[in-house]
Specification:
mainly alpha; 75% helix; Rna Polymerase Sigma Factor, Chain: A; 2 domains; globular; 185 residues
Length: 185
């Protein structure tokens, strides 16, 4: 177990046992840049991203007793909460469909999001709008793979699915995104 995982376990124990605010702050400070970066790459709106990041940490603190280090690292568990908050946002009545991306896999959207021209950004927005129409499970797999950069094994462990199922659902979603993009570009 690496040093960060040891610290995480200690902070979590202090939060659960003593409602230790300092431990909660340490945990939030350690993961805020990671969670915020994960969310902002998907949202591209700084204010909404900050709100969803805050919601993620509130949910983390409310559900900290359910975290099981044997099932996933704390980072993976926290990014799953963030991913669910993003999906909830896109499903909410407040979200209005935007335009986005071409071929999610080929574009490497996580790396190019802020380095693209207007046409590229429009294509990225189109791809994300199509992704929002997929099942929650498919969205979760694609978002965890692309934006959280988790491995198929980590995603499988987290979602309690066989790794082969995760891979097939991921590649099926990417194929469907490509097809939708080709039909609409």
């Amino acid at each position: 177990m690496d040093e960060q995982n040891r610290k995480d376990k200690l902070y979590i124990k202090r939060i659960i046992m003593a409602a230790d605010g300092d431990a909660a702050n340490e945990l939030i400070n350690a993961y805020y840049p990671i969670v915020y970066g994960f969310i902002v790459r998907q949202m591209r709106d700084l204010h909404i991203s900050m709100d969803i990041t805050q919601d993620t940490f509130i949910a983390m603190l409310r559900g900290i007793e359910s975290y099981d280090y044997r099932k996933a690292t704390f980072k993976t568990w926290l990014l799953t909460i963030a991913n669910n908050k993003v999906i909830d946002y896109y499903r909410s009545k407040y979200y209005k469909i935007q335009l986005i991306s071409d071929d999610l896999a080929a574009l490497n959207i996580a790396d190019t999001l802020y380095k693209t021209d207007d046409r590229q950004r429009e294509l990225e927005e189109m791809a994300l709008s199509f992704l929002e129409k997929f099942s929650a499970e498919s969205q979760q797999i694609v978002r965890l793979k692309i934006f959280a950069e988790l491995t198929f094994a980590e995603i499988a462990n987290l979602l309690k699915l066989p790794e082969s199922t995760v891979k097939s659902k991921y590649y099926a979603a990417i194929r469907m995104l490509r097809q939708l993009m080709e039909e609409n570009v």
